Amino acid sequence: RQFCVTDVADICLPLPPQDLLLPLEACRDAALELLKLLPALFASTKRPDVSLGAAINACTQLLEPSGGRLLLFQHTLPGIAPLKLSHRDDVRTYGTDKEKSLFSPADAEWAVLAARMGGAHICVSSLHFTAHNFVDIASMASLARTTGGQVYLYPDCVPEQRDSIASKLHADLSRNLLRPHGYEGVMRFRTSRGLRVDQYLMGNIKQGDVDVDMPGVDADSTFAVTFKHEERLEDGADACVQCALLYTTADGQRRIRVLTLALQATSAMSTLYRFADLDAHINVLMRKAVLSSARSTLHQMREAIVSSCVDTLYTYRKSCASNTSAGQLILPESLKLLPLYTLALTKNPLMRAGTETRADERAALMAQALR
């Protein structure tokens, strides 16, 4: 049966959630029939307007009692309230101070909805299909970034690319649906004396003195955490860091996963640089830059990354290689590729200057960088 709710401004469910949500095993045939019917269901419609906000609100009401996962497919801008969006991708703003507004939601209501879905443990993954048209991924990506989901972008969706896009979509959907997934996650980092958790660099930046809600966490989820050094640590003593993640499996089992790491404290800068992790360093720089996109221009983001690279190598030269010739480039063995990685990051479409990378593509890359 098909239920039609005409009042999109004040959406409601035609039946209680428990009557609309059914186990897949009980309705597999009906679900397959619906999937086959979807391409032709509205093929002859003469109204291209999309009421995406009302559909998301209905799904939120449907999943609020139980939590769960939501896949969102989008091809055109939602032109009907609520959560109506309009075209705001103006190439004339690229490289200016106004460009940073393209990487934040156009309306604060998107952040409110994301917080509501996160509080109900609803994990949203969104798939966006474009044919050189603007779909405002920056606004809708806030749902995935807040709830632990993933953003997928399929550019150049034209008939000539149907087979390649279909193969990519099949692979992405298979991975998204079949990979191990945890529900209702709660994560917290703890440290030994002398250290303090500073920030969680995830979909949205969070301060370190709180439990972090993770409506969805999967096998591909990653996050970065920064620490502050508050008290003196004895040279050679262990400084411990512990991460605890409480989550529910797809089978309904409540589990806790605990990872503990002991790091040896040192007062020697040469030892600190010898054991530096280049990949982790670059990942933290990238996440910090992306999370500053709401208040910094792309130029400022690139400059911050380059300045961090210069400061890191200058400190090494000053502390560990001060007797070498001033014209000689001195790099620590563990960070000898840091200048190359820094240059590659600033030249990546994520932060590259120019008009070649459009706002939607950059917003999708930003969401992916925080995964």
TrEMBL record:
One of its GO terms (cellular component) is COPII vesicle coat. PANTHER family: SEC24-RELATED PROTEIN, SECRETORY 24CD, ISOFORM C. Pfam families: Sec23_BS (PF08033), Sec23_helical (PF04815), Sec23_trunk (PF04811). This is Sec23/Sec24 trunk domain-containing protein. Residues 3-176 form the Sec23/Sec24 trunk domain. GO terms for molecular function: SNARE binding; zinc ion binding. SUPFAM superfamilies: beta-sandwich domain of Sec23/24 (SSF81995), Helical domain of Sec23/24 (SSF81811), vWA-like (SSF53300). Residues 182-265 form the Sec23/Sec24 beta-sandwich domain. It comes from the Eukaryota. InterPro entries: Beta-sandwich_Sec23_24 (IPR012990), Sec23/24_helical_dom (IPR006900), Sec23/24_helical_dom_sf (IPR036175), Sec23/24_trunk_dom (IPR006896), SEC23_SEC24_subfamily (IPR050550), vWFA_dom_sf (IPR036465). Gene3D superfamilies: Sec23/Sec24 helical domain (1.20.120.730), von Willebrand factor, type A domain (3.40.50.410). One of its GO terms (biological process) is COPII-coated vesicle cargo loading. Transmembrane segments: none annotated. It comes from Coccolithus braarudii. Residues 277-369 form the Sec23/Sec24 helical domain.
